[in-house]
Design goal:
With about 525 residues, this protein is α+β, with helices and mostly antiparallel strands. It is built from 20 helices and ten strands. InterPro entries: MmgE/PrpD_sf, MmgE/PrpD_sf_1, MmgE/PrpD_sf_2, MmgE_PrpD, MmgE_PrpD_C, MmgE_PrpD_N.
Length: about 525
């Protein structure tokens, strides 16, 4: 049964016992030797494949190229085998924290992997690169890797269920640093005291503002979770060397909650698995069919449906030829204010905006998906596509509005009613309207076409085919699908190697290192 850990701020004079601190409770979950359930193992395999899919598709993109170059400018650390870097041959190794960095950027760059949304939002697949890098470095087997990943997902998602960061303009990766540190602790079989110190250090070094996801969004959006993963690896290393961390990191009077979140009177109830309770959080997360911010997934599917049902909409006209006057997407508070017109970011309507910005503009995404009947991870973001005059005209007619019921459903803890979509109202020049709605994306477990292993494999083949040889695609899938049974040597091979010439086709930028 789940244990609720009550978290509030305590004065230093209270001398809060370590066993009453959230970092300690997280560490206790990490050291629990409970077996990983079979359905959880299968989903972990799916997400390892999913991460490799989106990493393959991003191998030649600028942020990934830069991060890879940084990683390869650092040698393998002395105390281990080293870790592989996505795209590079198996014998090309770097230190695990730099592999976590490079691979984390590759996974995150296209905003195309899994998600979990609750009080906060997250991409829990971001836990996999740092945990895998450490597994390769120390020679861990597949069973240990699975246990570590199960912990990473569990801790991040439990924090996301309870503690909102974005409300205070703190970036969501502040939950990722502690979860990745905990997952690495499970992988390595560390004791609770060491993991507790690593969790606290990882949180302390990964609290940053949300400006990385505001206005003109920069390439740092892809680097932010990779930085958290890198910090988690380093935090574990420091803790293993006996170094201590700020405490209580959550509850202290000068800690994260008191000064970055809800303040000295704050209180949170964080649900954590009880001793002996399986870590099953990953089953509550969901991946993306489309390369866009998760809250855009259902809207793309609704636009795709409308495109097929009402062909005239493709030319911004109704069935009677009347021009579209306006499109209003009635949706949750979060969707309205983060990726909708409620953000008050003029960049969300700018055809010259960066890919990262367009990815966080639901007016743009809905306009393109309505016209094209789908979404493409490259073509839908091309500058020429964004600048098409008819698209710009339609795009500027689309706004969002917060709807109390959709906000309630967004925050619902009942998985059967939790929703990330909304209701669209298209108004034509003659005053007539077209109304439709969608609750969850088609690929969601409760959607029209839930993702299964077959879909994850198909996504990998689609995205990997341009950059990996057919034999390499099959080699990776064969390994990934045997994940819990892999030997340490086979975990070393859990990498994707690009076709000869692919990586050389893009410049490797020089820097300080």
């Amino acid at each position: 049964m789940t244990v609720t850990h009550h978290v509030r701020v305590h004065p230093s004079s209270a001398n809060l016992a370590r066993e009453d601190q959230l970092a300690h409770a997280i560490a206790e979950v990490a050291v629990d030797p409970v077996a990983v359930d079979a359905d959880v193992v299968e989903m972990i395999i799916n997400r390892v494949i999913d991460n490799a899919s989106v990493a393959a598709a991003s191998l030649t993109r600028g942020p990934v190229t830069a991060a890879r170059a940084q990683a390869l400018d650092h040698p393998v650390s002395r105390n281990g085998h080293g870790a592989t870097v996505f795209g590079e041959p198996a014998e090309t190794l770097t230190s695990p924290e730099w592999a976590a960095w490079a691979n984390g950027v590759a996974v995150r760059e296209l905003d195309y992997h899994d998600t979990f949304l609750a009080a906060e939002y997250s991409h829990p697949g971001d836990n996999i690169p740092p945990i895998l890098a450490v597994a390769q470095h120390v020679g861990a087997d597949g069973a240990a890797l699975v246990r570590g990943i199960a912990t990473g997902y569990e801790i991040q998602m439990d924090l996301v269920r309870a503690i909102s960061l974005h409300k205070h303009k703190i970036d969501h990766v502040a939950h990722l640093g502690p979860s990745a540190a905990a997952g690495i602790g499970t992988l390595l079989g560390l004791d609770a005291e060491t993991i507790e110190q690593a969790v606290a250090q990882a949180l302390h070094t990964t609290t940053a503002t949300r400006q990385s996801r505001k206005g003109e969004i920069s390439t740092w959006k892809a680097h932010a979770p990779a930085f958290a993963g890198k910090m988690a690896v380093e935090a574990v290393d420091r803790a293993m060397r006996g170094q201590t961390s700020p405490a209580p990191i959550y509850e202290g009077e000068d800690g994260v909650i008191a000064w970055m979140l809800d303040g000295k009177d704050a209180a949170y109830d964080v649900p954590l698995p009880a001793s002996g309770e399986p870590k099953r959080a990953i089953l509550d997360s969901y991946t993306k069919e489309h390369s866009a911010e998760y809250q855009a997934q259902a809207w793309i599917d609704l636009a795709r449906k409308l495109h097929g049902a009402w062909p005239a909409l493709r030319q911004a006209q109704g069935p009677d030829g009347q021009e579209i006057e306006s499109i209003v997407l009635h949706t949750s508070h979060h969707t309205h204010y983060v990726i909708g017109s409620g953000a008050n970011d003029p960049q969300k309507y700018d055809p010259r905006a960066s890919r990262e910005t367009l990815d966080h503009s639901i007016p743009y995404i809905f306009a393109v998906a309505l016209q094209d009947g789908g979404w493409h991870h490259v073509d839908s973001y091309l500058p020429a596509r964004a600048a098409r005059p008819d698209t710009v005209a339609l795009w500027h007619k689309i706004t969002t509005a917060e709807d109390a019921e959709w906000t309630r459903r967004y925050h619902s803890e009942d998985p059967d009613e939790k929703a990330f979509g909304g209701r669209v109202e298209i108004t034509f020049a003659d005053g007539t309207t077209l109304v439709d709605e969608i609750a969850v994306a088609d690929a969601h477990p409760l959607g029209a076409r839930p993702f299964t292993r077959e879909n994850y494999v198909a996504k990998f083949r689609l995205l990997a085919e341009p950059v990996l040889e057919p034999a390499e695609i099959e080699r990776f899938l064969s390994l990934a699908e045997r994940l819990p049974d892999l030997t340490a040597a086979e975990v070393q091979e859990l990498n994707i190697v690009a076709t000869s010439g692919v990586l050389a086709s893009v410049p490797s930028p020089a820097g300080l290192f």
